[in-house]
Design brief:
With 707 residues, this protein is of the alpha/beta class. The chain has helices spanning 10-37, 41-55, 74-94, 96-105, 117-140, 143-169, 190-218, 226-239, 248-268, 274-298, 306-331, 337-347, 357-374, 389-405, 410-426, 492-504, 537-544, 551-555, 566-572, 598-606, 626-635, 696-705, and strands spanning 433-439, 442-448, 454-459, 462-468, 509-513, 529-534, 560-563, 578-583, 608-617, 639-644, 659-664, 677-679. The protein has three domains: 3-178 and 190-347, Growth Hormone, Chain: A, CATH 1.20.1250.20; 357-430; 492-705, Rossmann fold, CATH 3.40.50.150. It is 52% helix and 10% strand. It has an eight-stranded mixed β-sheet, with helices on both faces. Strands 1-2-3-4 form a four-stranded antiparallel β-sheet, with helices on one face. Helix 1 packs parallel to helix 3 (74-94), helix 2 (41-55) packs antiparallel against helix 6 (143-169) and helix 9 crosses helix 10.
Length: 707
């Protein structure tokens, strides 16, 4: 419901995780207090009242009255929206796990002496639900139906909790109390509880950081965010299950080698096959989670302090989520939390100790040498450029080899990994200049290519614009910027703009959803009117800064840029009328779903002049959106045509080939574009709406396209 409204940004998922972890902490605290202070049936009645209170907020829906998030405060906006919409029901649900386990421990039933296996069972249910939603619920049902079904399930759960409470508190054997064997341990000391918090912090923070890195810098593939969370849940299932499938020592021995490979690929930006790259990140995270959660499970208390143990675990989880999901995006201009947490993963290994004697002197020497090596790179203008990159590669190789050799010493291992990250951040090995700008919507990289010919803007792996700096013989480029990437003079977008200008035979009014580096401005004529709609304030600053890109300054300095979600801001622009609306809202390699729904098309049509067209840029490495856009357009009585640009081998590397669809009310509106391929709806396709969307279908279609 919420993800599409903020550009499909991975940060929405990160903030959602922080919110749910925070509410989980409150639920665990409530369960701990209720278990310690309230005895007998009264505890059951109180919790049933809390559950019924949560039912008052059903069915699940986005609270009304929440419009545009304020720029720069999207995270607080989301936390407030989640709290008002689903806060109380989730608070009531979050307490069920520890409460039911505590009640089971007092039930006198078989296996009640060790209720922790129920935590593995609850995480198994979470794992099944996690996969069921994108692959079963979303493709085959609407949001309104899902909300109604979820409400029915909530009421059923209340009845089942009541039944469990009756079995425990109204049994004939007498009062529900803990067995003596489970009440002999002293309360956990502060140091032990702090240890649990730290061990929970590392995998929680690492999960969010790894997800942000994978979905931003490796592959913005649909459903990829599911994998780190599923591995996080699986680690809990395994360490709290009755059987041990793989010994803890195996994970501990394997982790340094995985960390070394991960540090090498991160530091030197090494890319292999997509599956291999993703697998390395996920496997390293999973092994780290198994170590941290395994150490927690090995030191868990008796059932008498079960709820306190879960509270500490939840506290560490929410602190990790706050660090990676809320704090890091504000204090770092890139996903720096990921390498920091890789270093923390090394520190979380068993055997960490403060260095003494010779080891202390060695650690100090290492720190001093690394700082001295990094010092020259802090001076502006100093960089290591080809062909001297081998210096960086050599230093990294030596440091990682030393780290692997020191794998039994967590502090030395962590310091060597930190040295690698510091050196490669100060001396980027693959670009002449690297600048990163981070916002709620992602990390934007402004790079100068290794040959010095182009300055490029990237959002994750996706190229959002490139400006030529020098000619092939090394001379500075002057005059009007030369267009490249998806906007080169022969591109489908350029052809569509040219066709509108030809048909109008005069100044046109154009709207572009998604600014990027501002390349489309150079497709306009001097008298054309251009409105940009951009959700990310940092992108606007980048495009307007002539020290970075000059498309706006040199081609359309009078372009109007509206900040905010395009669908909402276009709807608010009641007097605006356009001859062409270009939907070019990339977010890394994903497209916000809510900009392609029936309701979105109705808004565009209300702002479209008679004879105007809608241009949708649907290039995507993972989704084939042709069928979806065709069906959705047909549902609004629009005609769709497609231009899938053929790639040319051996051409200019900055020329990118695109897939573009144009939508019009009737065939005459296409003008010169009537030769584009006419699209007709196919059986089995359903239009997207605010109540229904299905990414699985386009994903399968793209997979079949590659066969």
């Amino acid at each position: 419901m919420v993800l599409p409204r903020l550009g499909g940004s991975p940060s929405v998922w990160s903030v959602a995780m922080v919110f749910f972890q925070g509410i989980l902490l409150l639920g665990y605290a409530y369960a701990d207090i209720l278990t310690r202070l309230v005895r007998g049936p009264l505890a059951l009645f109180i919790h049933l009242a809390v559950m019924l209170g949560g039912a008052m907020f059903l069915p699940v829906a986005i609270a009304k009255g929440w419009g545009l998030p304020p720029a720069g405060h999207e995270q607080l906006f989301l936390l407030g929206l989640f709290a008002v919409s689903i806060g109380f029901p989730f608070f009531a649900l979050s307490a069920n796990g520890p409460l039911l386990q505590a009640w089971f421990a007092r039930s006198g039933l078989g296996q009640a002496e060790n209720p922790y296996f129920l935590y593995a069972a609850s995480n198994t249910g979470s794992l099944l639900a996690l996969f069921a939603y994108p692959f079963v619920a979303e493709p085959f049902s609407t949001l309104s139906f899902q909300g109604s079904l979820w409400r029915s399930g909530y009421y059923l759960l209340i009845a089942l909790i009541a039944a469990c409470g009756v079995l425990v508190f109204f049994r004939s054997e007498g009062e529900a109390v803990l067995p003596h064997a489970q009440a002999t341990e002293a309360p956990p000391a502060f140091g032990r509880m702090t240890y649990w918090v730290v061990l929970a912090f590392v995998p929680s923070a690492l999960m969010i950081a790894a997800t942000a890195h994978i979905t931003t810098d490796v592959a913005a593939a649909p459903f990829l965010w599911v994998l780190p969370l599923s591995l996080y849940l699986i680690s809990f299932i395994l360490v709290f299950s009755r059987r041990t499938f793989i010994q803890q020592e195996t994970w501990i021995k394997l982790q340094p080698f995985l960390l070394a490979l991960l540090v090498l690929t991160l530091a030197l930006d090494i890319r292999t096959w997509l599956i291999v790259d993703v697998a390395l990140h996920l496997l390293t995270f999973f092994v780290t989670a198994m170590i941290c959660h395994g150490l927690m499970a090995a030191t868990r208390p008796q059932a008498a302090y079960l709820t306190r143990f879960y509270f500490c675990m939840s506290l560490g989880g929410v602190l990790g989520g706050i660090f990676s999901g809320l704090i890091a995006p504000h204090i770092f201009s890139w996903i720096a939390e990921y390498p920091l947490l890789v270093v923390a993963a090394a520190l979380a290994r068993p055997g960490l100790a403060w260095p003494r004697g010779k080891e202390a002197r060695l650690v100090v020497t290492l720190v001093v040498l690394v700082l001295l090596a990094a010092l020259p790179g802090l001076y502006e203008g100093f960089s290591i450029i080809p062909p001297y990159n081998w210096l960086v590669w050599g230093a990294v190789t030596i440091l990682i080899a030393c780290a692997v050799a020191s794998r039994e010493l967590p502090l030395r291992l962590a310091l060597l990994f930190a040295a690698v990250f510091l050196i490669t951040r100060i001396y980027p090995p693959n670009v002449r200049h690297l600048e990163t700008v981070r916002s709620f919507f992602g990390v934007h990289k402004i790079e100068v290519t290794s040959d010095g010919r182009f300055r490029v803007l990237r959002h994750g792996m996706e190229l959002h614009g490139a400006q030529r700096l020098t000619t092939d013989d090394g001379k500075p480029v002057t005059g009007r910027p030369e267009l490249s990437t998806y906007y080169h003079p022969d591109s489908p977008i350029a052809e569509a703009i040219d066709a509108v200008q030809d048909k109008k035979q005069g100044p046109i009014h154009a709207a572009v959803i998604g600014l990027g580096a501002g390349s489309i401005a150079c497709l306009m004529k001097p008298d054309d009117h251009l409105d940009y709609y951009e959700i990310d304030a940092e992108v606007i600053r980048i495009a307007r800064d002539p020290k970075r890109f000059t498309f706006l300054r040199d081609c359309k300095p009078d372009a109007n840029i509206v900040l905010g979600d395009a669908r909402l801001t276009i709807a608010e622009a009641k007097d605006a009328r356009y001859d062409v609306i270009v939907v070019d809202a990339f977010s890394s390699d994903s497209i916000p779903v809510h900009l392609l729904t029936r309701e979105a098309l109705r808004i565009y049509l209300s702002r479209l002049n008679p004879g105007g067209i809608i241009v949708t840029h649907i290039s995507n490495n993972h989704l084939d959106l042709t069928g979806v856009v065709t069906e959705t357009a047909a549902s609004e009585k629009l005609i769709a045509r497609l231009y899938d640009e053929d790639e040319t081998v051996g051409g200019d590397p900055m020329i990118k080939f695109s897939t573009v669809m144009i939508l019009a009310r009737n065939n005459d509106d296409f003008g010169l574009l009537k030769d584009w391929d006419l699209q007709t709806p196919e059986p089995g396709e359903y239009p997207w709406s605010d109540d229904f969307s299905n990414l699985l279908g386009p994903l399968i279609a793209k997979f079949r396209e590659g066969d």
